[in-house]
Amino acid sequence: MTINDIQDEIIEEFEGFDDWMDRYAYIIELGNAMPPLDERYKTSDNLIDGCQSRVWLQADCNDGIVTFQADSDALIVKGIVSMVVRVLSGHTPQEILDADLYFIERIGLRDHLSPTRSNGLLAMVKHARAYALAYSMQQS
Predict the structure, then answer these.
(1) I need a labelling partner for 4 at 20 to 30 A (CA). Which of 14, 18, 89, 101 fits?
(2) Is residue 51 flagged as an active site residue?
(3) Catalytic residue, candidates 3, 27, 30, 51
(4) pTM of the complete model
(5) Which CATH number fits domain 3-139: 3.90.1010.10, 3.30.40.230, 3.40.50.1820, 1.10.10.60?
């Protein structure tokens, strides 16, 4: 699946919810479904600056494909980072760098997050792209 296919899938999932309480519950459910991050990856290098909650993002690149893992100590934030991981994981560094992450706007997430959580979401995306950039430089 392409990054856009996965984003469209998420948008479709959110269309099934009429109000934001149901959407928040679903975001928490997504976070709870994400496997916990191994403690060895909960390092200061993987900790995302700009998030009010503690969020760790780990990336590995094997055979030109980047795989992300993440965790957070806050339920909603863990759900949010799980969507970022779902969209970006399993793609090449260049695909990640070129991606337009439109699902955030289309599901209305940005409008329903506090300013600090919104900043945290941007920081998650920047962190993921920084990993992709670093891996693309290694491949060159």
Answers:
(1) 18
(2) yes
(3) 51
(4) 0.94
(5) 3.90.1010.10
